Amino acid sequence: MMQNWKYIALSGVAVLTLAGCGDNANTTDEVSSTSSSMAQEASTETMDPANTSSTAVATDDALPAEAGYSSVSLDRAVAIFMEKYPDSQIKEVDFDKDFGDYTYEIKGVVGQIEHELRIDAETEEILKEDRENNDHDDDGYLSFDNLITPAEAIRIAQERINTDASAFEGWKLDNNDDHGNAPIYEVEFQGHDAEVKIHAETGEVLGVDG
Q1: pLDDT of residue 140
Q2: Residue 42: predicted pLDDT
Q3: How far apart are CA 176 and CA 195, in angstroms?
Q4: pLDDT tens-digit profile of 154-167?
Q5: How far lies 25's CA from each of 12, 16, 28, 78, 160, in Å?
Q6: How many CB atoms lie within 10 A of CB 75?
């Protein structure tokens, strides 16, 4: 009889031990599952743009196209031209959408030949190449050191004539004889029969034609 009771007691202890192990296993699984879920949530929050703080400075490349900004910056467009014509001196840059989409038209001189490239302002595709004799010995050539950006020129012009950025139409950059051969932005807006001239080094508004 005593042996039976010992057997029953030992069996009970074994059952309790197994049950405890099972609970521990379940608890471990629950902790592991919870940790995995939390890790996934943290990962999702990190990847979610709405939860991501950015310290990037807005540049010409990152601003709305309707305000005159594009994926291809002025510096990049000039670099494309110089890669094509390494010995050239650039005399003029136009940025507009006269041909449907925004493009850069850049003119530069090598010796007695004037080269022109039309570059898609979003894809960098060269849409047109042209050349002709350069008969102008008194051309002024651009230096791109210390120039304000097209974005800054557009903002200055916009404030000068009190118009909305979405009315932006285009700009031209060249050296102007009327202002001591200084580099000048000429900025135009739709609905305004006016062209704002801005000193490309100082940002000073030099006049409004029209």
Answers
A1: 85
A2: 39
A3: 14
A4: 999 999 999 887 78
A5: 20, 14, 5, 67, 73
A6: 13
Residue 65 tokens read as 């196209």
- What is the pLDDT averaged over residues 9-22? 40
| pLDDT recorded at residue 79 | 97
Residue type, 177: D
Angle at 55 between CA 54 and CA 59, to 5 degrees: 100
Residues in the chain: 210
- Range with lowest mean pLDDT among 105-109, 126-130, 193-197: 193-197
Report the C-alpha gap between 73 and 86 in whole angstroms. 19
Residue 94 CA: distances (Å) to CA of 8, 36, 106, 153, 174 = 98, 56, 6, 14, 9
Residue type, 116: E
Sequence-separated (6 or more) residues with CB below 8 Å from residue 87: 110
Q: Provide the 8-state DSSP code for 66.
A: G
